């Protein structure tokens, strides 16, 4: 009996914004029974920021291409380059049109292993956060209602909601490298508390953690992949 060949796990790494993007499409139910609209969502692996999204009546490669075109323009303007796009094995993701788009822009494509749902966890986590939000409508009146709600939520997710995987900075702060000011405030407050009562910290100065300088998925946690190695004097520059 033949067996399904084992495929290599996708290996993703990001050391700067826009370097590696992950994307997927999720269903948003409409008020009319049996009708849906579809959210196309792109997440920057490094910052967890939602850097592009679109709504359409069905999974649509053209919509995805428009989203990525805008993302590439934004990244280029900010001095960054999109190097890899990761997705699952959906028809829109593996279409010839997306293949040609990536070839045109010199982007490497990466896909999840067949029947391995955990191979695109970062964007799936964003979908879970979205649909578990207390304000999520469960069903939308129409496509415009969905579009307006998603726009408001994405702004909240990127700029207001502190992310535990980012040491409780926001995705926008990591994406724009503006988190250091907030870190300095936190560190100053912790040091004042230490000076006032060292025994509270067992006589050890508190260490305010910094975001991981490297985000990776399916890579071995070897010494060269250790996180939180940024020195304090580098942060204060």
From TrEMBL:
Pfam families: rve
All copies of domain Integrase catalytic, residue ranges: 13-179
Coiled coil: none
Top-level taxon in the UniProt lineage: Bacteria
The protein's name: Transposase InsO family protein
Organism taxonomic ancestry: Bacteria, Bacillati, Actinomycetota, Actinomycetes, Mycobacteriales
